[in-house]
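in:
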């Protein structure tokens, strides 16, 4: 049975050239990049080269890139770093549809006595910018928001968010884990202060990420230790992962047009045909600008988790929401914030594609999904 992988917002397969970029630093070039002898030279050079490649993808300068272990670490560095530097400012703004990598650190500060404002979205997943304007205060330390939603793919207007926040001298952190590698991102044009990314979301390895920190931004390092990353993130660098991340960024930079055209066309055909073939189905966020690879579809009256099992039996891999909350058994907080009832949210599945997704993959999925939905509905009625 062929596996059809449509869970690329959870993680992506590592490209062969990305894997090969790791190999030398796990074998012959195993030295510490901070070492002054010859065994440190190639690892140090690899870290420098990768920093330039990451910066190039984002439109940043290399000194503004800090390597981390993950997107979650990157968002925590930004959130905690700003709060530590501005202890007299005890108000944080975020949105109701954030990933737990943003929501949980912000909620932690709420438990410590900070004021937290969680901005609403509408039925299409769009952020209420007027609510942002009204929420900003003199003691607001940070606005933390995502570039694009991991469940629905809905894209936020980051340039407008930054303009509004900077109008009150409030920095902005952007969780771009789902956006980097799928859409062009220019941090200078957007004006963001922090931007988080994770390598495994765009065909890099797991365990490596980065955070862009705009030059001149006021923040305090979260971890204390050695002088790595210019003292901004101590600890011996994951050279193999960093080298691979650089290659993944190079590949992503050359693949953005493909994502915009071919991957989007696959996603649109997938949605159009399923909506035609499956009665009482709906796409969440369809009225909004979305990532070209993401489709969150609801099938009225269906238990999404049960449907996942049946899809898996025919080789189709997708998800009922964020992989980081898989197994929690709770309805999606994202879909709930968009106004879906618990029953509606529970009927939804996320299908997320990549540049490796083929027409044959989509054809097979279109063949199986309607039949599975029909069988589940028929069994429910007969029960």
């Amino acid at each position: 049975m062929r596996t059809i992988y449509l869970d690329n917002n959870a993680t992506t397969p590592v490209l062969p050239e990305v894997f090969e970029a790791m190999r030398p630093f796990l074998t012959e070039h195993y030295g510490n990049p901070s070492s002054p002898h010859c065994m440190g030279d190639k690892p140090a050079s690899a870290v420098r080269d990768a920093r330039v490649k990451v910066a190039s993808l984002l439109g940043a300068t290399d000194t503004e890139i800090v390597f981390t272990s993950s997107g979650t670490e990157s968002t925590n560095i930004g959130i905690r770093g700003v709060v530590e530097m501005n202890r007299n400012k005890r108000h944080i703004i975020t949105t109701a549809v954030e990933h737990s990598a943003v929501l949980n650190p912000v909620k932690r500060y709420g438990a410590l006595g900070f004021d937290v404002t969680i901005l609403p979205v509408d039925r299409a997943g769009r952020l209420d910018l007027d609510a942002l304007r009204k929420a900003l205060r003199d003691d607001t330390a940070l606005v933390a928001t995502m570039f694009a939603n991991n469940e629905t793919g809905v894209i936020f207007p980051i340039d407008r968010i930054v303009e509004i926040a900077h109008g009150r001298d409030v920095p902005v952190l952007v969780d771009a884990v789902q956006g980097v590698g799928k859409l062009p991102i220019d941090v200078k044009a957007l004006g963001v202060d922090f931007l988080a990314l994770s390598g495994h979301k765009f065909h890099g390895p797991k365990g490596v990420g980065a955070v862009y920190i705009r030059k001149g931004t006021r923040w305090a390092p979260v971890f204390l230790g050695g002088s790595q990353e210019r003292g901004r993130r101590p600890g011996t660098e994951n050279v193999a992962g960093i080298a691979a991340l650089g290659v993944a960024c190079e590949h992503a930079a050359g693949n953005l047009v493909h994502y915009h055209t071919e991957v989007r066309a696959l996603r649109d055909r997938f949605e159009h045909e399923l909506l035609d073939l499956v009665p009482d189905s709906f796409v969440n966020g369809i009225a909004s600008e979305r990532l070209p690879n993401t489709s969150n579809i609801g099938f009225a009256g269906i238990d999404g988790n049960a449907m996942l099992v049946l899809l898996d039996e025919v080789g189709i891999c997708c998800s009922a929401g964020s992989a980081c909350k898989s197994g929690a058994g709770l309805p999606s907080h994202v879909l709930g914030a968009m106004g879906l009832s618990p029953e509606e949210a529970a009927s939804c599945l996320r299908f997320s594609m990549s540049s490796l997704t083929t027409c044959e993959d989509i054809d097979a999925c279109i063949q199986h999904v309607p039949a599975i939905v029909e069988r589940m509905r028929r069994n429910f009625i007969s029960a």
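note: The chain has a mean pLDDT of 96.
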